[in-house]
Every structure is written in structure tokens, then in C-alpha cells.
From TrEMBL:
Pfam family, one: PRD
Organism the protein comes from: Helcococcus kunzii ATCC 51366
Protein name (record): PTS system EIIA component
Higher taxonomy: Bacteria, Bacillati, Bacillota, Tissierellia, Tissierellales
Keyword Transferase: yes
GO terms (BP aspect): phosphoenolpyruvate-dependent sugar phosphotransferase system; regulation of DNA-templated transcription
């Protein structure tokens, strides 16, 4: 979207409502003087009918004058867009979408499709196609398009939902502002909020502060058009008991004084709801049992569906509980928190998929479908937990060295550097003092000496300065059970190579048929399970891989169906050539290493491209083990 010359002239002349000469305008706008005079003449033909005029004196000085403020403001609200903007290019679908959406969300009047067609320089049939997608987007906000013969179309829905759509779909985009006055209003609100002291019990991150400023800007624009929030009667007695009500009152008072406006009481309540939903300070002793139980259910669901075990991860338990305490208010009051790094988070597909699985518990409890933005925030907690495995999975190691304490400390230091996240405790000793050590406390021993001990604890022999073979031996000992588990998964798995399918549903049906041969479930049931998972959120990624899966454990050992395609297919919005479908079975065991390797694979484009040409499933196992 680009501004017209008319809008540029309008913005400049209304910045101070003083006289400006033609040469000044030509220099500022870098446009020929003749073009400026022609554009002003054209602009005057419209605005003179609507309470304003660009006055030209004998010296060719220009001044913007408003004769009828009420009439002119109505024109700005309803018709100014026809002169102010044109599409950056007629084929720019995203640009058209933004323009059409803004017009519908801010207009009080009906808009004809022919008007949009003329304005955006595209055919009416193209506008019809655009409107299909726009209607789908508006459905997410409980908004609909109503049409009236000979009048056009307009948005129908609750004011709260219209504001939510404006904030989420337009945000801080320049198209949010209709003119210079609105840009100045935004800056005044920004200054007011930036200088406000919220107190120690309320914290706004930079993102939430910008969200608050946008919320207030939209609030003021909408009430100036007599569009006021209507809330249920029982809301007041609930929200005014929160400390955020005092902060909302402070904000309202500051804005009313600084902007010389009056903000209705219902808007104060709505602002309080917004502040409750965005507060980042939650004391753990204030988290309700309901939220703690919800967190527990999410972690259990993740384990049930994926066998990824966070059940003893106390850090995840409390960080996720704190997050869910605030999320519950956002859901309750109908607020959504935009996630500016959602695309970066989705570049870590595994944590995002695990978060999506956990989100099903939230959806079921609150009867909603939380957005990808919100799932992304949960994925950040999952990502952190995956970087810091459960203490129960970490190993205790005894280091034995015959060359003195300093040599033992060198070996300990190398272990800490190489395997920090996998080790709980390392102790050092020498042969003389080993009799005082309870060897049963350790998972294995690393020794620089060839020793004979009366113990079943594995002993790994290594040089004081580790060689590659030593590191591999220690890694195998640390991951012994996990490597066995991964070998077993691949041994049980199926590889369907170079499938000739054209759609996502075709491949899901093929997977369902193949799985039904291996497990005691009907292919129709498996296919329904796949579809249920797809409805939760995308399982495909921009790296060319999809990881569809069912949401229930199966009655066999854990296995995969890996498929490579003869030609890539479109899976939702991505081109996919590799499909990895995991079926979690009854054989509980440590799958941490498997998921670590899967996550590494999903972030390695070279590995993905190479695997597309594999002939045997053993090649996938070798690839995973070497990642």
C-alpha cells in the first residue's frame, strides 16, 4: 500500500494549518509544481463538499481551512480512504488484504465491491476472491460481513471483537493511521504510558507496553466515533477487585487530562481487563490450585502422547504455571497476545509441536482454540526444559585417576564441558581412597587406569586428555539406554520410499492403511486421529518435513512410519517431501535422545535433503546416530 499525492499534501498542510508556498511543497514532496496545483484542484473538488478547503491566495500560498468540523470529520471517517491510498501493486494480495480489512473495520458505512475494485485497480472478481479469505479471517474474531443490495457490505459483530481484529490484523502498521492527527495522537498516548509509574507489582514487557498503547489508541479512535464497549453486568464487580483497576484509573485520568477527552466507565473496565491479562508479575504462592492442576495435566498429556518425560522437571512446572495463570485471564476476557518471534519459534519444530499437543488440554478446559502466537509462548518454556533435562535422567560419574588430583580435575573438567546437561554429579578419587566410596551411587566410572573392581558398574577407560574415541565411549555410556531405545524404535519402523501421492489427505490415508497392518486398530480410526491432530495446528514445516501423528498410544511397541515422496506435495502452506509419523507404544523408556536427534534433524536442511534419497530405514538410523 502507498499514499497518494493527495494524502501527502493533506498531511503536510494539516501539520500546522499555516500558509505554505508552492515551491516549499514542491521541494518537500519532490513533485513538480504543476502536478501539485493539479492535485490540489482535484482534492478541493471533493473536500469543499465536505466542510473544508485548501485556500490559495494571490501569491500561490496554500492553507488548509475547515469550515464545518463535524461534516469534515464524518468525511474523514467514511470516505477519505478513497483519496488517501492506492495499492502498491494490483497483484499484491497482502497489501489488498490490509487495505480492505482496514476499510471494513473502521467504516461506519456500507462499502461497495466496485468501489474497492476502482480504488485498488483490480477486477471485481479479484475482490470477490479476496473477500472469501477476509471472511475466513474475520470468523476468528466472531465477525461477519453483511451485505445490502445497492448499498454494499459492512462488518457486523461486537465492538470488543472489532477492536481485537484491528489490533491483531493491523497493529502498528502505518495503515492504522488515517491522517497526521492520528499519528500525533498515537505519540501522545505513547509518551503518557512511557512516563507512567505502574508500581512494583505490575510489569509490562516492551511488547505488552506497545500492545497497551495500541489498545488505548484504538479505544480513543472508536469512542470518538461513538463506538463504546458493552460488557456484561457481572464484569464490574469482578474486575474492580484487582489491583490493575487502580492502574487503569491512573491511565484514564492521565489521558483525559492530556488529551482533553472523556472516557466512558465501560472503557475503564475494559482497560482493567486488558491490564489483568497482560501483567507479567505473578507470585507463585498466588497461583491457584486450578492452574497448578492444569499445568500437571498438560505435562501428563505431553508424556502420554509423545513419551517425552517432563514430569519431574520442577522448573518447567513452575514457569509454565506462572505463564498459564496470566493466559487464563487472556482467555477469560477474550484477549490475544501477539508473538513477534513466532516464526523464529517455529524454526524449532519439535518444541512447537510438543506445545501444540499440550495446548489441547487448555482448549478442552476453556472451550477455545488458542492461537499459534499463544502456543509459541508455551513452546518457549518447552524449549528451555528440553535444553535442561530432568535431574532423574542425568548421570552420576566417578572419575579415577592415578596421576594425582590435578589430572583427575582435568578429566572432570572435560566431562563437564562435553556433557554438562547430562550429568548430575561428578566425584574424583584415586586407587588408594576408592575403598571409601560407595560405587552403587554412580551410573558408571571413568578411569585413566586399567583397574579391576568388584562391581557391576560399567567402567570406561580413557586418557587424561580425552581423544575422540574416549568421548564417543563416554557418550555411549551416558546414553546407553536411550541408544538402545532408539535402535529398537528404528528396528520396529516402516519405510515407504518414493510414494506417488498428490495431497496431504492421500498420504494420511496411506499412513493409516499401513499402520492398521501393524497395530490392532481400524484404518478409519487412525485416519480420524490424524485429522484430529491436524485440526490442532499445522504439522508441516518450511524445511520440507511433516510430522503427523495420532493422539493416542498404540498397543504395540513404539514405531515410526517414514515416507519419502516421489514429488513434493503442498501440506497446508508448505512443500513437503519427507513425512515422519511416530506411534507411541506401551514400551515406556527414555526417549530423550531420540527427540534430541529428531530435533537436530528437523533443523538440518542438508540432512533432510540427503535423507530424501535414502533406500533403507537403516540409513535414517545411521544419520540420527551421527547427528
Amino acid at each position: 500500500m502507498i499514499e497518494t499525492l493527495s494524502k501527502q499534501i493533506f498531511d503536510y498542510l494539516t501539520s500546522d494549518y499555516e500558509y505554505h508556498n508552492i515551491q516549499e511543497l514542491s521541494n518537500i514532496l519532490t513533485v513538480d509544481k504543476t502536478n501539485i496545483i493539479d492535485e490540489i484542484s482535484k482534492l478541493n473538488k471533493t473536500i469543499i463538499k465536505n466542510g473544508a478547503e485548501i485556500y490559495i491566495n494571490n501569491n500561490e500560498d496554500f492553507k488548509f481551512i475547515i469550515y464545518n468540523d463535524k461534516k469534515f470529520r464524518k468525511f474523514l471517517r467514511n470516505d477519505w480512504y478513497k483519496l488517501a491510498y492506492i495499492s502498491q501493486e494490483s497483484s499484491d494480495k497482502y497489501s489488498r488484504y490490509k487495505i480492505i480489512l482496514r476499510l471494513l473495520l473502521f467504516s461506519n458505512n456500507y462499502i461497495k465491491q466496485q468501489e474497492l475494485s476502482d480504488m485498488l485497480y483490480v477486477s471485481k472478481s479479484q475482490i470477490n476472491k479476496d473477500m472469501i479469505e477476509i471472511k475466513e479471517h474475520l470468523d476468528n474474531y466472531n465477525l461477519s460481513i453483511i451485505s445490502k443490495p445497492y448499498y454494499g457490505m459492512k462488518i457486523s459483530g461486537k465492538e470488543k471483537d472489532i477492536r481485537m481484529a484491528i489490533k491483531d490484523e493491523i497493529g502498528e502498521d502505518d495503515i492504522l493511521f488515517n491522517n497526521n492527527q492520528e499519528k500525533k495522537l498515537f505519540k501522545k498516548i505513547e509518551a503518557t504510558i512511557t512516563n507512567l509509574d505502574f508500581g512494583d507489582d505490575y510489569y509490562l514487557s516492551h511488547i505488552n507496553q506497545q500492545n497497551l498503547i495500541i489498545h488505548l489508541f484504538i479505544l480513543i479512535i472508536r469512542i470518538s466515533n461513538n463506538k463504546v464497549i458493552v460488557l456484561p453486568q457481572d464484569i464490574e464487580e469482578k474486575v474492580i477487585t484487582f489491583k490493575e483497576a487502580k492502574i487503569a484509573e491512573k491511565i484514564i485520568n492521565e489521558l483525559q487530562e492530556n488529551l482533553d477527552i472523556e472516557i466512558p466507565y465501560q472503557e475503564f473496565l475494559y482497560l482493567t481487563m486488558h491490564l489483568i491479562a497482560k501483567n507479567s508479575v505473578v507470585k507463585q504462592d498466588k497461583i491457584s490450585q486450578e492452574i497448578l492442576s492444569l499445568t500437571d495435566d498438560i505435562i501428563k498429556e505431553i508424556y502420554r502422547v509423545t513419551n517425552y518425560d517432563f514430569r519431574d522437571n520442577i522448573d518447567l512446572y513452575f514457569s509454565l504455571s506462572t505463564h498459564l495463570a496470566i493466559l487464563s485471564y487472556r482467555i477469560k476476557y477474550g484477549f490475544n497476545l501477539k508473538n513477534p518471534i513466532i516464526n523464529d519459534i517455529k524454526n524449532h519444530p519439535l518444541s512447537f509441536q510438543i506445545a501444540t499437543i499440550g495446548s489441547r488440554i487448555i482448549n478442552n478446559k476453556y472451550h477455545v482454540k488458542i492461537s499459534e502466537d499463544e502456543i509459541g509462548y508455551i513452546a518457549l518454556h518447552i524449549m528451555a526444559a528440553m535444553e535442561n533435562p530432568n535431574k532423574s535422567n542425568k548421570k552420576n560419574i566417578l572419575v579415577i585417576c592415578g596421576s594425582g588430583k590435578s589430572s583427575a580435575m582435568i578429566m572432570k573438567s572435560q566431562l563437564e564441558n562435553q556433557f554438562k546437561n547430562q550429568i548430575d554429579k561428578i566425584e574424583t578419587t584415586d586407587l588408594h581412597n576408592i575403598k571409601d566410596i560407595n560405587l552403587e551411587e554412580f551410573d558408571f566410572i571413568v578411569s585413566s587406569l586399567n583397574i579391576i573392581l568388584d562391581t557391576k558398574i560399567p567402567i570406561i577407560y580413557a586418557d587424561i586428555i580425552f581423544k575422540d574415541k574416549d568421548v564417543k565411549s563416554i557418550s555411549s555410556a551416558i546414553n546407553y539406554h536411550a541408544i538402545n531405545k532408539m535402535n529398537k524404535i528404528f528396528k520396529n519402523s516402516i519405510y515407504l520410499k518414493h510414494l506417488k501421492v498428490k495431497t496431504k489427505n492421500e498420504i494420511l490415508k496411506s499412513l493409516s492403511l499401513e499402520a492398521s497392518k501393524y497395530i490392532n486398530l481400524e484404518k478409519e480410526y487412525i485416519y480420524t486421529q490424524f485429522q484430529n491432530r491436524e485440526r490442532l495446528g499445522n504439522t508441516s514445516f518450511s524445511n520440507g518435513v511433516a510430522i503427523p501423528h495420532i493422539l493416542e498410544p498404540v498397543n504395540t511397541d513404539t514405531f515410526m512410519i517414514i515416507s519419502s515422496l516421489d514429488k513434493p506435495i503442498i501440506w497446508d502452506d508448505n512443500k513437503v517431501k519427507i513425512i515422519i509419523s511416530l506411534f507411541i507404544g506401551k514400551d515406556n523408556g527414555d526417549m530423550t535422545l531420540f527427540y534430541d536427534k529428531l530435533g537436530t534433524y528437523l533443523n538440518n536442511i542438508e540432512a533432510i535433503n540427503n535423507s530424501a534419497n535414502f533406500q533403507e530405514i537403516e540409513e535414517f538410523l545411521e544419520l540420527f546416530l551421527n547427528l
